[in-house]
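Case study 2.
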Amino acid sequence: MARFTLEGDWGGEVLMLVWQDGEVFGPPLPVAIVHALAEFHEGRRIALAGCPGTTHDHLKSPYSARELMERLYPRLPTMHGSLPPLPVGGKIVRHDRLGGLLHEYNRAA
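Prediction:
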């Protein structure tokens, strides 16, 4: 079972969104917004920097779901839990929210 929670400020209140096995849970309005974002971006690539992306069924992927969920927060939210391990091989590049390089490494076999 894969699961993570994002927690941060949303309109002066603390918003917690949970992704678990392809589903998003939380207050009805923010969850509806995440679903609308996923539907709007259907057919377009969604991905966290350096992570596998999706072009369809974005909420089934924890990486794409997190990218869409983070768009609701004005500042980077705190994440509890963890994303599944990345596939072996390939270059992983992590950027801060302004695009500055934080860390770069190769994930070896």
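The first strand starts at residue 3 and ends at 10.
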